[in-house]
Design a protein that fits this description.
Strand content: over 45%
Largest sheet: 7 strands, mixed
Order of helices and strands: EEEEEEEEEEE
Number of helices: 0
Oligomer: single chain
Distance between the termini: 40 Å
Number of strands: 11
């Protein structure tokens, strides 16, 4: 079992920055990957960025160059640094832990944090 708790959302003007945090209840090294997703009203949830236990990262093309994912293993925390925010980045952002359990991947989701970018 893994609990994840997001924080750091809020209201920001276009062009501004926010940093989201995701605290996990166990060592990040024991979790195969941590990821940020987002879901805007009326749209499907989409992957924004991910980081593996080995430290490899992947960022979606639509935020590449603006968003960065990183982690602090000592704090069991993953971050999403969001710069040059646009109104279309407005969404609920979710953190998820994906952990291999035998032959399956177990997914653990946070409650989400709202990010609103005003124009």
């Amino acid at each position: 079992q893994v609990q994840v708790v997001e924080s750091g959302g809020g209201l920001v003007q276009a062009g501004g920055s926010l940093r989201l945090s995701c605290a996990a209840s166990r060592s990040l090294l024991s979790i195969n990957s941590m990821a940020w997703y987002r879901q805007a009203p009326g749209k499907q949830r989409e992957l924004v960025a991910a980081i593996t236990s080995g430290g490899s990262t992947n960022v979606a093309d639509f935020v590449k160059g603006r968003f960065t994912i990183s982690r602090d293993n000592a704090k069991n925390t993953v971050y999403l640094q969001m710069n040059s925010l646009k109104p279309e980045d407005t969404a609920v952002y979710y953190c998820a832990a994906h952990k291999l359990a035998g032959y399956r991947i177990d997914d653990y989701w946070g409650q989400g944090t709202q990010v609103t970018v005003s124009s």
